[in-house]
Design brief:
815 residues, alpha+beta, seven-stranded antiparallel sheet, 16 helices, 22% strand
């Protein structure tokens, strides 16, 4: 079963070129000249109420915090499993979040929810395994009282290439059955002086195709599988006279290694001293811990740790712990644990006695970076903040508020300063009918799949190329990271999922099938699956835990909710953009917004539209209309008709095309000047007065005058007027009326063509096109963690690929 992520991104264009645009750009709305401040209803600005109806297409879940009930487990952070009910109304805050996010996208506004404090921290990524990292122990310098690191390079000198043998000795710790050597486990961090180590050679086998196109082992001259040598390493075989190898806990060293021998056939061994370092079984196949030593003893090199290196290390630990905060990203395989640098809060700072792995510079004279484990996360070169266009970062002052900031409000992240928005949204109240009197459906607690936190450190997903487009799937992880001139993919949006089964959202059926066939059901609400120890294709069902939640109700599909948007002092473009949002979802549910909890699982698809007939007037009025109403102590009888609402939407679209799109080439028709060939033009106007008469003629057309009068024409002398026959005047007026009608017809056609041309150009703007596509219904949109053939978050480490014509580890939608 191929899957796609349940989300995609709406790209953000650089706003730098249009920052001075009156609508799409930035300005201070509190300046009175802009007529947006809250002191009055400004003439030419729109104030009133927009009634909206919301329809649920898939089940909608809005968490009711007061309904929280402990269903299973203990009160521990990772064990307790809770069940929630849904609210039976839609809070105004949820509706405002939906509408403001959509408005932000279709106006290419600044990122309003993008904390500078959070996103100026470098993120971590899993580094490739490398033997070049040098084992070390942090200590406080005797002379400088600053931190330094003592290096342990084993039996080889400090080199930049791969050490041979490896720096640290292996310490057999874990058996294939999953048990660990308790004797060694108690010695963690201790310094031992009577330790015997033995030299081994690690190897591997290779397979290649034979004549029948089958994969078989590559053979040596004797016909046995050929051993390809990898690296040499020391392994601890005895501590203080107690055997480590050759015991029940460790009968032999790893199968893929053999002993190195002296010329007389005896094993190569040494007696050394050093530190036992145990980080825990942090991955399933781990069988050894490490022993840090120097031979000869006392030959350690000590390097100063700069404040920058220390800061970078502590940022890395902070990133580790934030990724796993609150029990997020639990271990998957049985017996596997998180390292102490993840689980222990007191490991946030670098301290005396910490064991680390050191990355040295090319000349081995300075520390470049420190890591808590040998296969560690490492920090990206740049931060998400660095990879966002400066013009889309949150506003830092009143004079650079973008369209969404001006409409929905803004609070300065860096200190004083705030702007009250120009829109207020009410709660969404259920609209009962004779057929439906209750918006919610109740059922037995139904566990949802685990919903993970966002993973912006996975740069292949969140980071694009220099234009923000998805990166090539063939590049290496390091090349796909936050670096260079790369830009964020854009605004994250969850997708509307199509489900062919008419009974798909039957919660009672889901519960029954889950209990009867838990191994077969590929259902978005099922528990998480993981691979079992036999590496079969059938997964083991994980029961309710602290990592997921259960729900016992939801708002059913095909339920209507009504709410109002109260707007104040909106420009034509602002009101037009809001009306455009309400016209983007369609009656046959081809396009939807997403709202509420569990959007990745398909819940929360809704449509929005005006709660009024096309023939009704929208109760929104200009400041001039309000003033007239107050003067007359009457009731406003006017409003915005459907045709005028379309004009407002077109004003918004034209503004966006002028700022970001390609303007249509159509030009308005020229005002006809056939009067030049009339008897009046030929006989009564000399060359010096042609332009004066032309200006009068043009002005009459533009003001739609009923007839053309030449009484005030200065170029016509009294004698000339008397000489001008009445037929010539009538000819001139007849010509004006004919040309005026023809011109008005041509101009109306031009206006219609221009509206259509601007509408088509608006659709072609990249972020508009992507937003519209994100609202469409898609099949093959699945939440990856509840697919039995996937191991946890393994899919995050891959990019889109094709296998047999099907997307594998897909991260974006097909065209």
């Amino acid at each position: 079963m191929a899957f796609h992520n349940p989300y995609n991104f709406v790209p953000t264009c650089d706003r730098e070129k249009c920052l001075s645009d009156p609508f799409a750009g930035d300005h201070d709305p509190s300046v009175k000249a802009n007529k947006e401040d809250h002191s009055r209803y400004h003439e030419g600005r729109y104030t009133g109420t927009i009634p909206v109806v919301l329809s649920t297409i898939t089940p909608l879940f809005i968490t009711d915090p007061s309904s929280k009930v402990l269903l299973a487990g203990t009160a521990g952070r990772n064990d307790a499993h809770y069940c929630y009910d849904t609210l039976d109304y839609i809070p105004a805050t949820a509706l405002k979040g939906l509408i403001s996010s959509a408005y932000e996208a279709i106006t290419n506004s600044r990122y309003r929810v993008f904390s500078k404090r959070q996103h100026t921290k470098k993120l971590g990524m899993r580094a490739p395994a490398t033997p070049n990292l040098v084992p070390g122990r942090v200590r406080v310098g005797q002379d400088t009282n600053s931190l330094e690191v003592e290096l342990f390079t084993g039996t080889v000198r400090l080199i930049g290439a791969n050490p041979d043998p490896l720096y640290a000795a292996w310490l057999p710790m874990y058996t294939s059955s999953g048990s660990k050597n308790e004797f060694l486990n108690k010695l963690n961090g201790e310094h031992k002086t009577d330790v015997k180590i033995r030299l081994y050679q690690h190897y591997h086998y290779k397979k290649d195709k034979d004549e029948q196109n089958r994969y078989v082992y590559v053979k040596d001259e004797d016909g046995n599988p050929k051993k390809f040598l990898d690296f040499k390493f020391w392994s601890v075989v005895e501590i203080a006279g107690k055997k480590i190898v050759g015991t029940n806990e460790c009968p032999t060293i790893t199968k893929m290694a053999f002993e190195e021998k002296n010329a007389d056939g005896t094993a190569i061994e040494k007696s050394v001293e050093g530190y036992i370092v145990i980080s825990g079984k942090t991955f399933k196949r781990k069988h050894d811990e490490r022993f840090f030593f120097n031979a000869p003893a006392g030959s350690a090199q000590v390097i100063h740790i700069t404040p920058a290196v220390q800061k970078s290390y502590e940022e890395l630990i902070s990133n580790y712990q934030s990724v796993h905060e609150g029990g997020a990203n639990p271990t998957i395989d049985k017996g596997v644990i998180h390292g102490k640098h993840i689980m222990n809060a007191d490991k946030k700072t670098l301290r005396d006695g910490d064991f680390v792995y050191v990355n040295m510079n090319s000349s081995n004279t300075a520390v470049v970076a420190l890591f808590p484990v040998q296969i560690s996360r490492e920090l990206h070169e740049k931060t998400p903040w660095d990879c966002a266009y400066p013009s889309v970062r949150p506003a830092e002052g009143m004079d650079n508020l973008s369209p969404a900031d001006r409409l929905f409000g803004w609070v300065n992240q860096n200190g004083k300063g705030a702007w009250k928005g120009k829109i207020r949204i009410s709660d969404g109240i259920f609209h009962a009918t004779e057929e439906v009197s209750n918006p919610t459906e109740q059922f037995e607690p139904l566990p949802l799949a685990i919903l993970g936190n966002p993973k912006p450190a996975q740069a292949r997903f969140y980071l694009g190329d220099a234009q923000g487009a998805p990166q090539n799937c063939r590049i290496k992880k390091a090349d796909a990271s936050y670096r260079g001139n790369k830009k964020l993919r854009g605004r994250k949006v969850y997708l509307h999922q199509l489900h062919g089964e008419s009974n798909y959202w039957n919660a009672q059926q889901a519960l029954a099938e889950r209990q009867e066939h838990p191994e077969d059901r590929e259902y978005v609400m099922n528990d998480q699956y993981v691979m079992n120890d036999r590496d079969d294709t059938v997964g083991t069902l994980i029961q309710q835990s602290g990592q997921n939640r259960s729900i016992s109700s939801w708002i059913s599909p095909e339920r209507l909710f009504r709410f109002d948007m109260r707007v104040e002092n909106l420009t034509r473009e602002e009101l037009g953009a809001l009306l455009q949002l309400l016209a983007m979802t369609t009656a046959n549910q081809e396009r939807c917004f997403k709202l509420g909890f569990a959007k990745p699982l398909g819940l929360g698809s809704v449509t929005l539209k005006l709660d009024m007939d096309d023939s009704e007037l929208l109760p929104v009025y200009t400041g001039k209309q309000h003033a007239s109403d107050y003067r007359g102590f009457g009731e406003l009888q006017t409003g915005i008709a459907r045709s005028d609402r379309r004009s407002l939407i077109n004003a918004y679209k034209k503004s966006m095309v002028d700022a970001y799109g390609t303007r249509p080439n159509a030009a308005p028709p020229a005002i006809p000047d056939s009067w030049r060939g009339s008897s009046f033009g030929e006989n009564c106007i000399d060359e010096t007065n042609v332009h004066k008469f032309e200006a009068m003629w043009t002005d009459a057309f533009e003001n739609n005058a009923v007839e053309f009068s030449i009484d005030q024409f200065e170029g016509l002398s009294a004698d000339g007027w008397n000489d001008l026959a009445g037929d010539a005047v009538r000819e001139l007026n007849d010509l004006y009326l004919v040309e005026q009608n023809a011109y008005r017809t041509a101009y109306e056609q031009y206006c219609n063509d221009a509206v259509n041309a601007y509408a088509n150009a608006w659709i072609g703007i990249p972020f508009i096109d992507a937003f519209r596509k994100s609202m469409e219904g898609y099949e093959n949109v699945h939440y990856p963690r509840n697919w039995p053939l996937q191991l946890g978050y393994e899919w995050f480490s891959h990019n889109e690929d094709q296998t047999g014509g099907q997307p594998r580890y897909a991260f974006s939608l097909p065209e």
